[in-house]
Amino acid sequence: MSNLLPRNATKLEKNIEQLGEKISLIPVPFVDLHSIDRCPVPHLPWLAWEHRVEYWQPDWNEQDKRNAIRESESFNAGRGTRSSISSLLSTVVDNYQLKAWYEFNPPQKPFTFVVILSPQYLLSIEQLLQVHTAIDATKSVRDNYSISAKVKTVCDFYLTGSVTSGTKVYLSTYSDPFFWIVDNSIQFNGAGTATFTATSSDSFNIYNSHADLNLIEAIIRSLSDADMQQWQAVKDAIQQLTRVTTWTLDNPNSQIKYTPPPPPFSGYAFRLHVSPYWNSDAYYRTTPEEVINDFYIYFAEQNAISTGSKFVYSNAYIAQLGANSFEIRHGGYLVDSGGQQYNNCNTTSTGYCTAYITSKQIPETVPEEQTLSYSAITQKIISNVSSSNQAISLLAEAYIESVSNSIFNSDESKQFVKLSDLLSQFELNKTLAN
User: 145 pairs with which residues across the strands?
Assistant: First the structure.
């Protein structure tokens, strides 16, 4: 290098000139140090630092190192996303699954994820650390994660103590009970049972299993929930069993309280207005069924019809004609055991077939409060699935399905089916996944 300094140059100026002379002796041009394709291999770690390459392995080959630097710009633009984590993991391991918190049933804690490595592969401690480093280099700060993998290691094992000849000593590792992940494909049948399927892993193998659960207890639990009590399927079952439209819930005792409607003849007693019924108070009846039965007996006797005969009627009811004046209105006839009809009804001027009756007032019956258990309501909901009324059937089926799916509810108070109800069967029925 030519000396261009004057003879009166200071010591500082001479030192700066010598420094510049040393830089000029560097065999690589300065511009090449910043080129991904031309930078010498020994200088690539510094070029990676300049490009903010977060994950770097010294044992990578030259091409992998240059690719990592080249892809750093697009990688950093997507840092913290699922694709960026997957992209970096692919450089470390193959055959893995990344599962976010919302992909579990039930959903896990928000902003968490699990990396599940294939159980077919054994990782070394060093490889496991590389996986951790790769994830930490790109995940969002808010995210927490766990890794499911089979890991092998070599270590020295020391056992101290005394051993008695002839005694066998067994050593085993301890692992937590299986954590079963329930699938959302639940199968139902009309008998009030459901089949649940699930998967689990003991960090060495993946297992599948199933459990058949009788839903009676779960449905009984659901009837204590204020939201579930509003379902039409519940109202249908109660109305069918009680014939009332209002009731009081008694959750502590798992029952409802209700007052049944008064009898149809409440406040009156009736008897047929023919002999011998009009001659004795003993023939006063307090239910329509009893009066209709007297009506049948009377006509059967008048016509000498065998006891196998049957009075066929439709829409029979008591009609009030005026003050203390009533009649039975009906449409029907007598049929003997051979199917022959007798006494075809002749309609009156009112358009009804009638039979006159007399009545008297009696103290009105006041029904007492009654109870209906949640167990009876549950059985009715289950039986309604097979109802010939399609609307009632579909509503009952939807209710039972909702109870079954409650296992996925994040609110434990609304989990009418609980994982603990299924664990014993899952353990019993587990099979090794293919």
Answer: 113
Structure tokens that stand for 224 in this block: 């204590």
pTM over 0.85: no
Rounded to 10 degrees, what is the CA torsion of 69, 73, 79, 85? -40
Q: Letter for the amino acid at 217?
A: E
How does 368-395 read in b/e, with b if 16+ C-beta sit within 10 Å? eeeebebebbbbbbbebbebeeeebbeb
Give the pLDDT confidence of 176-233 residue by residue, as tens digits: 445 678 887 888 876 788 999 888 876 567 788 899 999 999 999 999 999 999 999 9
Q: Write 391-396 long-range contacts (CB < 8 A, 24+).
A: 392/233, 392/236, 395/231, 395/232, 395/233, 395/236, 396/233, 396/236, 396/237
Cβ–Cβ contacts within 10 Å for residue 34, how many? 13
pLDDT in tens, 117-167: 876 677 788 888 888 888 888 888 888 888 877 776 666 555 555 544 443
User: For the chain, what percentages of helix, strand and coil (3-state, to nearest 5) are there?
Assistant: 35, 25, 40
Residue type, 341: Q
